[in-house]
Amino acid sequence: MRILFITATRLGDAVISTGLLNYLIQAHPDARFTVACGPVAAGLFQRMPQLERLLVMTKKPYDRHWLELWKQCVGTRWDLVVDLRGSAISLLLRTRARRIMRGGRRSGLRIAHVGEVLALSPPPLPVVWTDTEDDAVAQTILGDREVIAFAPTANWSGKVWPACNFVDLWSRLEKISSKKKLAVFYGPGEAERAMAAAVLAIPGAIDAGGRFTLAETAAMLRRCQFFVGNDSGLMHLAGAAGTPTLGLFGPSRRSEYAPSGLCAEWIAAPGPEGQAPISGLTPQTVFERVVLMLNDAGCEAHGSVGAASA
């Protein structure tokens, strides 16, 4: 059996789709999978079981990337095509069955929309796939310490809680538990590192960003006791890794992109969704929520065990 799974370009959307893909893997243990995604998300799928091909779509003028994907797929007789991009390509391939997710703005969580493609309610939670090499990297970087993860970056300035607030938050957390260590996560590139610089400058902070694969990052997040970060791909990855996760929201849509996981919550700046500046979210407010979640027995049971990983 051969299954084509066309998923997102953006990391957060791709993470959200992993639950549906993992459902298919478990439902069809003998199937061979081809996954098509954007370059940023490609690392999510490199460790997944039953992967036959990973097709990385790099955006090209006049949507030529879709033509190239069609050329790579048209020679195969598929048993199932799952298209989360709602593209025309899924209608132009030979397949026994196709499931297409329609686009456009819709109310409700994105993960629920993804689950509807296969009529799954509740939708399957996102997962991460790692191996022993990734776990070894995580052990080297984080060791066996109690680690709290901060992710102070995002792909849009409106999503970025000011770095000074992360510094303030850590000073509050350090006072109640001096044994905990801070790990700072961020994406590749100088712009991401610059956004994280003030948080990286906290004495004793562990640099857990920039140079790691997504599987290594997921393995590190899985070892963390807690995650606090902006609405970003890293936030969704932390939730998928089973790490107790608190997502920070300003003008972005928490009604659609709230983190999903065994213990994942969000907190938003006061004001109407889509309008409230994230700077209105105070360190004290975030600190109080973090403490509540850290003291929650249900969240604590999931911390660093990787129960959402595959």
UniProtKB/TrEMBL annotation:
Taxonomic lineage from the root: Bacteria, Pseudomonadati, Pseudomonadota, Alphaproteobacteria, Acetobacterales
| CDD domains found in the cross-reference section | GT9_LPS_heptosyltransferase
Which protein are we looking at?
A: Heptosyltransferase
Question: Which key words are in the record?
Answer: Glycosyltransferase, Transferase
At the top level, the lineage of the source is: Bacteria
Gene3D superfamilies hit by this protein: Glycogen Phosphorylase B (3.40.50.2000)
Q: Name one Pfam family in it.
A: Glyco_transf_9
- Molecular function (GO) terms listed? ADP-heptose-lipopolysaccharide heptosyltransferase activity
Q: Which GO terms describe its biological process?
A: lipopolysaccharide core region biosynthetic process
One Gene Ontology cellular component term attached to this UniProt record is: cytosol
